[in-house]
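seq:
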Amino acid sequence: MEHPQREAKTFCRLCGGYCGLSYSFDAGDRITKVQGDRNNPLTRGYACVKGLTLHEAHSSDRRLLWPLKRTPTGDFERIALNQAYDEISQRLGAIIAARGGDAVGCFRGTQSYLNPVAYALQPAFLSAIGSRSFFSTMTIDQSAKWVTARRIGIWDAGLDPYELSDVLLLVGANPLVSLATANMAVQNPVKSIKDAKAAGKTLIVIDPRRSQTAEFADLHVQPIPGEDATLLAGMLRHILAAGWADGDFVRQYVAGLERLQAAVEPFTPHYVAQRTGVSAETLEAAARLFAEPYPDRRKRGFVTTGTGPSMGRHSNLSEHLVEAINIVCGRLARPGDPVVNPGVAMPRRPRRAGVVAPFREWESGWQDADGYGTLFGERMTATLPFSIGRNTPDGIHALIVDGGNPVNAIPESARVSAAFDRLDLLVCIEPFLNETALKADYILPPRMMLERNDITSPFLEVIFRAPYAQYAEAILPEPDGAELVDDWEVFWEFARRLGVPLALNGVSLDMERKPETEDLIALLLEGGQVDFATIRAAEGGQIFDVPPLHVEPGDGDARFDLAPPDIIEELQTLRAESAANAFDLRFAVRRMRDVMNTAHHHLPTLEKRLSDNPLWAHPDDLASRGIAPGDRVRIVSANGAIEARAEADATLRTGVVSMTHGWGGGMGANVNALTSLGARDPINAMPVMTGYGVRIEPLSANFNAGHQAGRVEC
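struct:
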């Protein structure tokens, strides 16, 4: 057996799992083997198919290798990089001069989140030109968490530590696939969940599907999608009625409990069962398992959510009720608790057992023409299609998209697509012609992750259940003849040409001599607990020996606001709603382990595994409609229709169908064509993206025959 001539360690940057990878190369420097890095102290050899096929994206014949400019005929032509920078900067400058800084916006996609220098310089550029028009996937994904943090208040020390928890309650979350559930151990997820079970932790999963995570649950609750708020209100009612609240904690830190208790009183077990399809016995069992105190010590644990509740009806109410359950049960870190990850790359910060008071920035700060404000410095993504081209102070006329595909990701795809056509200037930092890039005036192809020096993001290190960081050098060369960019340098180049300064980590950058990526990483890490040189020297990642940190007593008198007027009003609205549904099925979105949102569907290994995103339904629901697995069907909602291949999935509850988001553009169907931007939440503009009514209609057998012969493109 031939031994590899070169081996290299790196890590995947497609999601927050940050899985360690090991590459082997032959004498010709060709990749011979890719596997999870068994020596990585955090991911311990785990890597999913997405990470194991990263190199296929680098070598894809669909990859863009040099900058492109749209011609008057609508085609693309190659343009020299510096010429592209010059032309784009001139157009940006003209738009700013005519309309002000807010007319230029940026959209941060998922792949920009895991690129720490670009993550920092994108908002720095907007600040430099005087723009508040910053959008990201967060406000179309789980912004209910942000709304709730601001509306109910923040416990500075965080939830009960995962390591000390007795019971974990997951609502609409599937960390074994997403690797992205707050406060959970998500690195090497299967081993982590098995370790948790072996340690005696109780797991409750609320999900309409018996997901990969639900397979490990001690209790799996399967509600009708879209009824999360109803179910959670019923759970909270039962917890309070049973006297399971942490009285001492509530008296010291909580305001409004009596008003909230009165508001959830109508959510009786009988009523909740009618609305959610969850029996009174199951509801009470879940509440008891989570909240009933132990006789001899404080019960510990937490409720946390995924995208299920955040994308459904009454998403902000659902998240508020989740945090209300955590708060009334006292499931928050206390003085003396260990902080399992004090941090590595970021400055050391004390954690205190106290409340950071509610702060409704969306009401007190800047607002757009429709009355929508900001959250943590970001505008709401679902407002973007309405702001594009508008001749008002909030109007967006130029947009820079980094590492995302908003034309696919934002609901009501047809409206979004038409809105992007109204932009005066669209620039995409993107390696492939996705739906958004196809509308761009300029496309700047980036170096992909195996071609750039990088570090696990200091901004996201809270996801690690240990003080961990990893540095990785580029392990693949750029393709011959390519003219690629680092994402961050696009913003530096624009700022230089526009004559505005940029700062990183409080330090002004040299705007005449372009810095090196490593210089910027080192600058990002200044003030951190472990210096960059030490992290860089730890090949393959390391859990660093930083001084232990424990939760300190709080020093303020702020309280959680459990019952603000708009929450009470929304509970009343929820209770008054009719449970009737004009459609006979509920539609739920789901994730595939094989793909990350809209990225990399076309890679050879993945195309062999899947060619589209089928409609999954319970076998009984298919049979009752005369539909066989593999048949083509039409899915109809109140807002649109799509076509897909039907497949059986007995893990779903009956009456529920499910598809994966992020498809379309020639591969599979874009489920956002079923949604609408017409009804958006008044705070964060969240539309309903899951849990709505649909019906399915069988199509002719010709569609099925076509699929069997080859991929049918929708």
